[in-house]
Amino acid sequence: MACSSGRVTIQLVDEEAGVGAGGLQLFRGQSYEAIRAACLDSGILFRDPYFPAGPDALGYDQLGPDSEKAKDVKWMRPHEFCAEPKFICEDMSRTDVCQGSLGNCWFLAAAASLTLYPRLLRRVVPPGQDFQHGYAGVFHFQLWQFGRWVDVVVDDRLPVREGKLMFVRSEQRNEFWAPLLEKAYAKLHGSYEVMRGGHMNEAFVDFTGGVGEVLYLRQNSMGLFSALRHALAKESLVGATALSDRGEYRTEEGLVKGHAYSVTGTHKVFLGFTKVRLLRLRNPWGRVEWTGAWSDSCPRWDTLPTECRDALLVKKEDGEFWMELRDFLLHFDTVQICSLSPEVLGPSPERGGWHVHTFQGRWVRGFNSGGSQPNAETFWTNPQFRLTLLEPDEEEEDEDEEGPWGGWGASGAWGPARGGRTPKCTVLLSLTQRNRRRLRAKGLTYLTVGFHVFQIPEELLGLWDSPRSRAILPRLLRADRSPLSARRDVSRRCRLRPGHYLVVPSTAHAGDEADFTLRVFSERRHTAVEIDDVISADLQALQGPYLPLELGLEQLFKELAGEEEELNACQLQALLSIALEPARVHTRTPREIGLRTCEQLLQCFGHGQSLALHHFQQLWGHLLEWQAIFHKFDEDASGTMNSYELRLALNAAGFHLNNQLTQALTSRYRDSRLRVDFERFVSCVAQLTCIFCHCSQHLDGGEGVICLTHRQWMEAATFS
Length: 720
Known about the structure:
- The structure is a single chain.
- The chain is α+β, with helices and mostly antiparallel strands.
- It is 27% helix and 25% strand.
- The protein starts with 6 loop residues before the first strand and ends with a helix.
């Protein structure tokens, strides 16, 4: 096998580059317009093959096929149990959304908040759908999922029990946009039951593509009213939760502990010279309201001017009520605010728009799931992203007091907090676990995740790459960190000096596996890149030393080869079992090179089926080098190396591989104990050597860039 003497770089290209980039993704490939046209043409109503109306759509446990709650359920179209069904009755409002028996108040409270902003609602609930003109039994909704908008098609067969909808309903019983939106969300995640229990921010983010933040009220409430007022003014979605250790229960004051409420408004009123801050909340049940101060029947309303009282107070059992800020702080534990994304919010005329970077990643056991403890031996393997903050914030004035989360900027729902003269940059980091809710049916839940932010000194900046971070990372000063949380979305607003930073997202425990999305937002200019390698190799290093064979080894080759003067796989295995034996006395678990690996070596270094003497000489030089590299990383002489170190060993062998490829190779060549033995290492390195040498033959002068699709590269690099 001949190699050139230059450097070959492999650039991976997407086979569908530009196709649908940044556009709307059709869930399951279903096009609403195409389905509707086909149904109208054939005169039949749509029946969704990907989410069939039946027991599996309901759930898997409490709503499973054999559960009591799933008995006597009928799947009916609205016109089969409602005289004049409508998609929307006049205008949608926050009182349309009333909770059923599913236990998804977090979702419904978010949907109720969404109705406050028609522009946002039209994105999620596309207009032009109804049960009259062009009705074909098909509807569609658009939801944000981890970096792109997804169009979800559903049929209108809904679960009905005793003639009533099982789950969400509208206050106006002939309106069905909310039940159909709930069905689309259930389809996206696999069933209705996976929607049981959650946090409002999860739905907030899915409705807007925004960034959710959690404010813990028991820690510090200063500036809360101002923050909520500005957030609502900037069309942020806001909710509150009254936490409970024993599930949902109703208090004497009419609140429901362990329950999610929408925050739908703020107002200041004056009682004499006393300023009173009021918050308007809504229970997604559509009933059960606060009965304390400033509730619907409270006599304090009579002290206000008539026009003010009439503008604020609506006395009916609709689940909506006012309460004073100090009472709110006594009864609620958290506030969840979803700031709008740049796409939805639009650019800022004052500052020229948002700056945002989005990264998709995955924690893989034995490769880059290094846990959350910076002093742990595997922490350095976690995914790493370099963030450079270039411009400090401008000072902003606010008429009200500031809280620890700062003011709310002119171009978005959040902005910098003042504090001291040192110029700082505000950056919002958001870490999201992808696709975990739909795995609930398999017994999986959200992992506990978070991220660290380290400052990179200028003198270390030029040295920074993934392999070296093992030694450098412990020397970095931590600048900030998020809380570790078992929520889907973990976000933190950081106030950092201009400079270079390292963002390290991690699971709480090493070895946990999950997909994640990391987003970086700022209103001032920044840069962000994933720390990764270009796929390349120094072909001169891959030549291997052409050492003359020892006389005994050459004689052994000739004896095994016989008249053919070439070795087959079985003969090569016999030769290596003898030739490599002396080096194995230093390990406790000797293992010979297997027949399958010998067949691979023939493919890479010989004629495919056999190996001549000069080919074996080249192979032998490689084997001695690979053996030396392996022993370097087999520090305990166990005959194996930790799979976290495979990347470092491959670097030592002359290869630079990106994160995606190293992850795939690690998953392929590690064993169940996250170890890589010598035979697996030989197989991996031989395969890479063969690929790069083959690619170099297609380059003028033996160096340059080869373009391969992801599929072509992965097939070549991981074939059996």
